[in-house]
Every structure is written in structure tokens, then in C-alpha cells.
Amino acid sequence: MPETSNTSGPLPGSWRGVLGSEEFPAEKDRYHLYVGLFCPFAHRVILIRQLKGLQELLPMSVVKAYPKGDEGWRFPNSDSEYPGSTVDHLFNSSFLHEIYYRSPPTFKEYKGKFSVPVLWDKKTNQIVNNESEDIMRQLNTAFNHLLPEGPQRALNFYPSDLSTEIDEVNSWLVPDLNLGVYKAGFAADQEGYSKACATVFATLDKLQEILIAHNRPYILKDQISELDLKAYATLIRFDTIYVQHFKLNVGMIRHNYPYLHRYIKNMYFNVEGVRDTTDFKHIKENYVKSHPGINPQGIVPDGPVPNLEAWSEMCEKWRATWANPDGTLNGQIYLSYPEWLLGLRTGRLSISN
Prior knowledge:
Structural class: mainly alpha
Number of strands: 6
Distance between the termini: 35 Å
Shape: globular
Strand content: 5-15%
Helix content: 25-40%
Number of helices: 12
């Protein structure tokens, strides 16, 4: 479920409790996380849980990708019913909305949407937070005191010395790409769609230019950050679902954005744990079977094939150039692409043909 705001303040029907505060201290197995593997906003939370090694500290239940219907997201009757989904390990609920109705102070007066992710406190029997941005930031450090010394404890997706730079990129990445794909997909008229579509591809251009400029694996060069989790969660869905389902077919990552293509392949194949969080079956079946106004028959497309192209020998040579500012390896260039391959360039979207 997409957010409708960034971190400007509470939204109607949202919980904004702080994990690690006096009210909600971080304790092992005190909290429970509810997610959907299809949702890019829940995906960023799943990613940080995985990369920080919080699986034993924070158990998780996963709703089915479909059907949604009038009663909202459902849990399977068993963990084998719909691979990747799980039963509600806490309450054995049939629907996610039952979790919302259990939480004070709104109880059954709640009028908001039953979205994922949801962070639940088993000790006080209430929702702590259901805003992905908040949960992601809180999981970044809240459980550090319970983690053993090592790389996962040291991993920081929002370091103070990079916070200004992260905030600046967030100011356009979130509204123009993470939310931008939804603005295009659910546009009510041609003008709204065309405007949103142009914004999405302008943002892809901008993101690719960053990667071209520094020849490093992540948006902030060598430091993986929350920006990479947010970008990956949208980009990994782009060719697979957004191109056809949200009519963002002006170009594809694999064909028109070679640097972004290598970027998401590096995240998927080389960052330990990322691949485990990515379920293309959940992603494809959720979108096409949950939006009858866009896809009335609910037919799942067979392509693209493959869902993500393989990490190639050329990609491996590119990885070996990261230590070289000029992008060379043994005197050969593995960084540059011809100009005609470098994205679509926003100006072309205004040309009628």
C-alpha cells in the first residue's frame, strides 16, 4: 500500500509510536511485524530487518498477495497454502483488519486503510507503528544493543554524517519515483497520467546520472543506505509489473537504463539477504489481481523473461572497476555506454509521434 506522505507528520489512521522509546523499549520477541511481500513500502522494512539480522528478535507474519476484496488482505490457512505467505503467528487471524481492530484507541471505530507494514507490541497489545518510513528508521538502530558485535550491528542506513545528503535525495526519490509510479498507474485522466509518467522517467534519468557520475555500487557511492532500499524496492518491480500494469512503458530498466540495471542486479545478486526478500510471484499476482479497474480479468503476464537478468561476466568486470575512478580495468573501459543507450532523457516525452 503506497504512502500518501513522507515524514511531515501523522496521517489519518496511522500509528506513529517510536520503537526504542521509554514506551516501547526494544526487547527480544516483544514485537511482531506484519508485511506483504508484494508491497514496495513493506519491502523496505523487510529489507532492513533482513540486512540487520533481526529475524530472531522480530518475528514476522506475511499476508497473501491476493485476493484483497472488501475485507482487505488475508492470511493463508497454512504456511503451505500460498508459498511465501504465512498464517498469523500471533492470533491466527483470517484478515489483516482483525489486527487493526485489536489495537486501542480506535478499535472498531478505525476508518483508515488496513495497510502493511504493521509493527505490533505483544506486551501492551497494540499497534506501535504502521508507517514504513518510521519502522525502517527505527529498526536501523533500535535493536543494536541486542545484536552481537559485528557488521550487522555496525550497519547504519541513516548515518548522521550523511543525513543531509540522504534527506535531499529523499525529497525527490520518494514523491517522484516511489510514489510517482502509483500516481501514473492510478491517474484518472490522460493529462494526469502523462504528467506523472514524465516525472517518473525524469527521476530515473536523475538517478542514473548519479550512478554514472561516481561509478560505485550504491547511491551514496560505497555506503549502502536507506536510499538504496527505497530505490531497489521500486526498481525491482519496474520491468516486472509497472511497465505494463501502470502503463510506464516509455522504457524499461533492462533496455534503457544500463546503469540502473546493473545497480539493481548488484543489490539482488551481491548484497546478502536482498534476493531472499524479493518474491516475483507475490509482486506480479498482487498487482494484476488486486486492481480490477486496471486489469479486470486478473490475468498474470508471463513476462518479462527472466524477471531479472543474470549477473554477467561484464557485470563482474564492472564491479572490479569500483576502485578505479576512471572506470577502467587493465586498461579497458567497463563503465561507459553509448549515448543512445543512456535512458530516454525526459525531453523526449514531450515529443508527439
